[in-house]
Each structure stands twice: as C-alpha cells, then as structure tokens.
Amino acid sequence: MFVDRVEISIKAGNGGNGTVAFRREKYVPNGGPAGGDGGKGGDVVFQVNSNLRTLIDFRYKRKHAAQNGEDGGNSNRSGKAGDDLIIGVPPGTIVKDKETGKIIADLTETGEEIIAAKGGKGGRGNQHFATPTRQAPRFAEGGNKGDELKVVLELKLLADIGLLGYPNVGKSTFLSVVSKAKPKIADYPFTTLVPNLGVVSWKDGNSFVIADIPGLIEGANEGAGLGHQFLRHVERTKMLIHILDISGMSGRDPLDDFEKINQELKMHNEKLAARKQVVALNKIDAVMEPESLEEIKSSLEEKGYEVYLISAATRQGIDTLLDRVGNLLDEIGEVEPIFDLDELEGEKLYEFKSEKGYNVYRDNEAYVVEGNFLEKLIASVNFDDYDSISYFQKILKERGVFEELEKLGIEEGDTVRLLDIEFDYIK
C-alpha cells in the first residue's frame, strides 16, 4: 500500500511560573503570601478531519507549537492556561515517535483525537509554601516544560478515486499528468504490475488521491490474470473513473470493454459496482473513426453516465474532468466501507513510559545530577533565602537524588554539579 510520509516537530506549551507576591492592603500591615500559580501550557493534539485527504500541507510547515501558560499574578491570581494546538490530519493517519519508532496513535475515525505532546504544568505561587514556621516564603515554583518531540506522520492512502480500464488504455499516462506519480508506461498489456497512487493538488488548496489499478481482464473476479489481487484496492475508493481507449488503434470495442469490466466489478462486489462512476474517453487526439466518437458518448450517457473527452498525452479535457471530480468528492463525502482495512501491525497505542526524570553520574572529582526537573526546581529557588534553600533540599531528598549520590560513594565535602551550579555535599 502506498504511504504518504512526513516528519514534523511538535512542542507543547511551557507551564507559567508561579509568582512571589505579598498582600499590600492598607489595613493589613502583615499581609501574607499572595503569589498566584502559573497557567498550564497548551497541549498538541492531533485530530481526524474528514475534509483532509493527504499530508501535503505538512511539507510546507514542519514546526508546530502550542501556546505557553502565563505566569501567576499578584493577589493570588492564576496565570491563563495556554491554548491547545489542534492539528488536523486525514483519516488513516499513523503518528509515530521518530526517535523510538513507537506508534503514538492510529487515527481512523472522524473527530478522533490524541494528545501527542502534553503541556507543562504551571508552577505554584508562594501562597502554597506558607507554614506556621515559614509565614513569608520568598520563593515559588517554576513551570514545567511542555513535551517536545519529532513525530512521523504516515498516511496509508486509501485512494479517493480508482482508475478502471483494460490494459494499455492510458491510465498510467493519465495519472502521470495529473499528479507527480511516475508510473512505468509502455505499449504492452499489464504494464502496471502494482497499484500506482498519486496525490493530485487541485484548486483552492484541495487535494485527492487517485489509484491506477493494474489492468483487468475477463474473469478477474475469479482470480484470472491480475484482477482479483487488485480489485481489493479498487474497493477502498469513493468513486471510479473508467478510462476507455477510443482511438481504435487497439482494435478493441470500447463499449464491449466497458461492459465486461463493470460486470467483473458487479460479480466481485455489488457495493463496489454501485460506486459513482464517470467515464473518460481517452486518446481523442488519435481517433481513427471520428464518427464513432459521438455514438460511444451518446450510448454511455443514455445509460446515465457522465462522459468526458480527454487526451492524457496532450492534457486536452483534463482540467474539466478534474474540476468535476473534485466537486463530486465533496458531494459524496464519507462512504460505507466495503472491505475492512488490514489490521495495523504492532501496537495500537504507545504509552509514554514514566522515568525518574534525572541521571546521576561521576565526572572526574565531581558528581553530576542532570534532569529536566532540575531546571524548574532551580528556577524556583531563591538562594539568598534560608526557607527557599530548605525547600530545595527537601525536593532533592524526596526525588531520591541524595540516595543515588550515596550509592555512587559520595563523601561529605565532595562537589555536586547541578546544571551550571556547584555546591559542596553536606550530610
């Protein structure tokens, strides 16, 4: 199956910082702490949008970031939470973590969504750190950073349109001129050995996917020739374009070919045969018997089919056909599935594993502590305030940092480095 693939970077919003503030009311001389909490950072959410059919827009915008939370204010005012970033994707999109290759989500249903990057939690203001013995805390928490990662979006393209027709009627040539697909083209039967798919970028930013199905022959529904294998791809489409060669050079009867292939469709699956079908009479630039052209067109129109005269080789009539096809896809909308999609191999959803959030190791004579939580913690500390330093040590102990250092053999007086800050270890 053809896969449209793109890599993008996503960044959830950072949480706002908590604030250090005190009440300053006229008749409250010893006002207590009143620093507000920081707002939560916005999440990055992937949401299925049935109006989208390809990932082509992501090729022009590779970085996506949600809004940061606001810092807390005075008088216990909390900062505003950052807005979530909703990223629309077409049905059938698989979201993977680029670094691990794990599947974050398999998005198939309209409106389905997944939070791929969580916004950082807002830091607490100093109002939360008051105790009977610490009535005027001069420190507050910094906000957490939002998740940041590179993801791979893969769309197993379920073609909007299937191209039908006997071998060598010009389906591959048609696909090559309306999209950037480069199918193998030659003048012999069964040129196409695998389904070729192309993304057609059309007017007003619309795009859709066309599948060139390998040539069908009579008896395809029973497995003759290549037909049965590839009919399974045709039945995933919303509508069909039936291409007929009316040049007369092949010596075949276009109307007879049309009836035989539609009979194969009906015998294979009646729902598939009922799909909207338009007919493209191809190679009008090389018609050997012009008088037969109108007869064929009239005969098909009498049966209720829309008929378009085209030449894939010269692009004659192509724009008119694509205009109509684009409008029809909008009119058709969602269709009832005929054939269940192959089940996705591997995990349906990847749960991000929780980690302790830091790493402790020895670097020559110093002991180094690294971790995302340290940046937030250090931003919260007022190193000129005893209560703030006590809080700092309490958090390190609760997170097990001291225990890890002792496992490495740290002694009193040894140097510990946290980010760009160094201090002596005291038991």
Structural description of this entry:
The chain is an alpha/beta fold and 427 residues long. The chain has 3 domains: 3-156, Spo0b-associated Gtp-binding Protein, Chain: A (Distorted Sandwich), CATH 2.70.210; 161-332, 3-Layer(aba) Sandwich (Rossmann fold); 359-424, 2-Layer Sandwich (GMP Synthetase, Chain A, domain 3). Helices cover 22% and strands 23% of the residues. The protein has 9 helices and 18 strands. It has helices at residues 171-178, 227-234, 254-268, 270-273, 290-302, 318-332, 372-380, 386-398, 401-407; strands at 3-11, 44-48, 63-65, 85-89, 93-97, 103-107, 113-117, 148-156, 161-164, 196-201, 207-212, 239-245, 276-282, 306-309, 359-363, 366-370, 415-418, 421-424. The strands form 4 sheets. The chain has a 6-stranded mixed beta sheet, sandwiched between helices. Strands 3-1-8-5-6 form a 5-stranded mixed beta sheet, with no helix packed on it. A hairpin with a 5-residue loop joins strand 10 (196-201) and strand 11. The longest helix has 15 residues, at 254-268. It is elongated and about 100 Å long. The two termini are 62 Å apart. Residues 350-427 form the OCT domain. It is found in: Cytoplasm. Mg(2+) binds at residues 172, 192.
Brief summary of the model shown:
The chain has helices spanning 171-178, 227-234, 254-268, 270-273, 290-302, 318-332, 372-380, 386-398, 401-407; strands at residues 3-11, 44-48, 63-65, 85-89, 93-97, 103-107, 113-117, 148-156, 161-164, 196-201, 207-212, 239-245, 276-282, 306-309, 359-363, 366-370, 415-418, 421-424.
Query: Major sheet: order of its strands?
Result: 10-11-9-12-13-14
C-alpha geometry: elongated
Span between termini: 62 Å
Low-confidence stretches: 183-193, 223-230, 340-354
CATH fold assignment of the largest domain:
Rossmann fold
Subunit structure: Monomer.
Protein name: GTPase Obg
Subcellular location: Cytoplasm
Pfam families: DUF1967, GTP1_OBG, MMR_HSR1
